[in-house]
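re: ur question from yesterday

yeah so i grabbed the chain u mentioned. its 189 aa long if i counted rite. heres the sequnce exactly as i have it in my notes:
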Amino acid sequence: MKKTLLIIILTGLTLVSKAQNISVERSTFGIQTGVLGGWVYNEVKLVNSIALRTEIGFDFGIWETTYYDDYDSPFLLTPVIVIEPRYYYNLKRRSQNSKRIDGNSGDFIALKTSFHPDWFVLFNPDNAPVVSDFSIIPTWGIRRNLGKHFNYEAGLGVGLSHTFAERAGYPKDKTELELNMHLRIGYRF
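ran it thru and got these structure tokens back, copy pasting raw so excuse formatting
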């Protein structure tokens, strides 16, 4: 009788512990770097599987467009501001398979909106004019943890970019397709 009661209590505790709410982190903050820049980010929970990511940093680019044909150095490091809602669609499955979901570790679909302001450009020895742009890019990606604080992230998407060339002295603005490919490693505080 005592063994049966003990088994029922342990089974009940196991079921109660599995009934926890599976969700993105309430707030997570960190830094990331990749081949093309460095960023500081914060993700805030909106609902259980959606987080709003805000990011500020520098994008490194190799520019080969009509805007920079007359300049020797097409390498630029420009500030970027990003607002990106992310839907983490596999948190429940990862949790059921005993995989980590802390730090928003999972697969996501995002709507990356980024703005490169015309404030300044680093590594601009030719004084090429700053051409700001705004882009909206639907993106699929993954984030995984490496230990307690480190993570890596990869993503791929295609969207639209609008370049504000007239403000920099060029004849007209330009709207075109833009590819978002990123591979980053980061540290979560």
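noticed a couple things. The chain has two helices and eight strands. also The chain has a mean pLDDT of 86.
anyway ttyl
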